[in-house]
Design brief:
single chain; alpha/beta; Glutamine Phosphoribosylpyrophosphate, subunit 1, domain 1; Rossmann fold; seven-stranded mixed β-sheet; six-stranded antiparallel β-sheet; 18 strands; globular
């Protein structure tokens, strides 16, 4: 007999958060969820996917933006997004199994925490950059439990609490630019229709981010095609790039979108501690610049260009079918998104698993009119924009970024809101970076070996290039020794502890 869902709405929770508890041999799974999680007798979900909402079954979608679960003949089938920016996690506690789209919720529900003695969680949780086949599959809690992590998968939990990971259904291999563009148009239409379905507890309407680069303007064009009227832009990029002006206003005007302009450093003027929820996912916290957007994002389907750098770049050595990421950008939005209540739609991630065909298209003869021949060259989004009359000079001039990394980016007082830094400093003051002198000495030795290993790899690569060869990296020392160990290693612990407070009241 299939396991039933017992669904408990809790309006005090973040709008899109959920946590399920399954007991060995029980005939039901209890799901405690926020008020905007969609629930039916045999499924629950927060987000949207590329098939009709009334059909349910998001596990069968080839593009899924959100998470949830479904009753299946063999148990409960939990559903992750089809990208690497967000995950679900689970942990076993004796004869109970907990599953959630929020790490803070999961830990609060089980009365656990992450160990302050362990300073390398960032490296473990940022392994999503390695793709869905090679990311680290678990992290250890303070109580010694393994929290299992799942990306890009459907995860079946049976009545005996055994777990099976099932691959997602994949989109087609793309045969031409026209084929891919048709796929995007159809996908965007299906996801937007699903998100806006009037039968939802909370429908979501489209809004786009837009900059002077390649990716978000192309995604804003697609958002406009399904009814978006507003575009969010940050006027200035992060210092250190050739240009700091990153406003997408000119392109938005051409698209007929109203511009909502924000200051990327506005979060630092906050009287609260905005960084905490962005750090709580363990992936760097750089999307903290989005904090002021909570004024406009509730109930929105947010189109972004995340992973356009990986999916659409004409010049790359990382052609892959594993959803590799160049950096962890976009993967710190989770707790903020669940609380504010919006669906994140990183358009380039849809179809990225067919990257070899996208790479072939970008480098094909038919795309030469839209290729610049430099290192910042993305013919696919360029063609999308130029074919509707956007001037070549209006976008894609130089690479920029607006986010603010908080992980290993010191001094932290320059990047955090004053109240946040004071709270973090008080937290970190009670936690030694090294427990013993021997531990510190060992770290220094491993740090030196890492640098030696890195230099050897650089030399091998340089010599290989002379002979037209490619030298594969030989990583002999773990990546956790790539940075000096400082108080910034504790930003995850602090953000997690602060964010867990919003889930502390929940009882199963």
């Amino acid at each position: 007999m299939p396991i039933r869902l017992t669904l408990r709405r809790d309006d005090a929770l973040p709008r899109l958060a959920w946590c399920a508890r399954l007991q060995r041999g029980a005939d039901d799974a209890v799901v405690v969820h926020g008020p905007w999680v969609e629930t039916r007798a045999d499924w629950f979900f927060e987000g949207a996917w590329n098939s009709p909402f009334d059909r349910g079954a998001p596990s069968t979608a080839t593009a899924c933006f959100g998470s949830g679960g479904e009753v299946a003949p063999e148990g409960i089938r939990f559903v992750t997004p089809t990208h690497m920016l967000e995950r679900i996690q689970m942990v076993r506690v004796d004869d109970e199994l907990y599953v959630s789209n929020s790490l803070p919720f999961l830990l609060a529900a089980t009365g656990d925490a992450m160990s302050a003695k362990h300073k390398y969680y960032h490296f473990e949780l940022m392994s999503n950059m390695k793709g869905y086949r090679r990311y680290r599959g678990s992290v250890r809690t303070r109580a010694g439990r393994d929290v299992r992590i799942f990306y890009h998968a459907n995860v079946v939990v049976r009545p005996d609490l055994s777990v099976e990971v099932i691959d997602k259904q994949l989109p087609p291999v793309f045969e031409s630019y026209e084929h891919y563009r048709g796929f995007l148009d159809e996908l965007v239409s299906a996801v937007a229709a699903n998100a806006a379905d009037p039968r939802r507890t909370q429908p979501f309407t489209p809004i786009a981010t837009i900059s002077s680069g390649y990716d978000s303007p192309a995604c804003a064009l697609l958002a406009r095609s399904v009814g978006a009227t507003d575009a969010i832009t940050f006027g200035r990029a992060r210092p250190g790039y050739d240009e700091e002006d990153d406003s997408g206003r000119e392109i938005a005007d051409h698209l007929g979108l109203r511009v909502l302009e924000f200051d990327r450093l506005e979060y630092r003027s906050s009287d609260s501690i905005p960084e905490a929820e962005f750090l709580a996912n363990g992936t760097g916290g750089e999307e903290v610049v989005f904090a002021p957007l909570e004024r406009v994002l509730p109930g929105k389907l947010l189109f972004t260009g995340y992973l356009g750098d990986a999916a659409w770049n004409r010049v790359t050595r990382r052609v892959n079918t594993e959803l590799l990421m160049l950096y962890p950008g976009g993967s710190s939005l989770g707790e903020f998104r669940l609380r504010v209540g919006f669906v994140h739609f990183p358009v380039p991630t849809a179809g990225y698993i067919r990257h070899p065909s996208l790479y072939t298209i970008a480098n094909s003869d038919t795309m030469r009119p839209w290729a610049l021949g430099n290192d910042y060259d993305r013919p696919i989004p360029r063609r999308m924009l130029e074919e509707i009359g956007v001037a070549r000079s209006a976008f894609g001039r130089t690479k920029k970024a607006i986010t603010q990394p908080l992980w290993f980016n010191e001094p932290l007082d320059r990047h955090m809101a004053p109240r946040s830094y004071a709270a973090f400093s008080a937290f970190a003051a009670n936690i030694p970076i090294f427990e013993t002198p021997l531990q510190k000495l060992r770290f220094r030795a491993m740090r030196l070996l890492y640098e030696i290993n890195l230099r050897v790899n650089w030399r091998l690569e340089r010599y290989a290039k002379r002979f037209g060869l490619r030298a594969g990296e030989r990583v002999l020392v773990p990546e956790q020794y790539s940075q000096d160990l400082t108080e910034s290693a504790l930003t995850f612990h602090w953000g997690l502890e602060e964010t867990m407070r919003r889930y502390a009241h929940v009882r199963f």
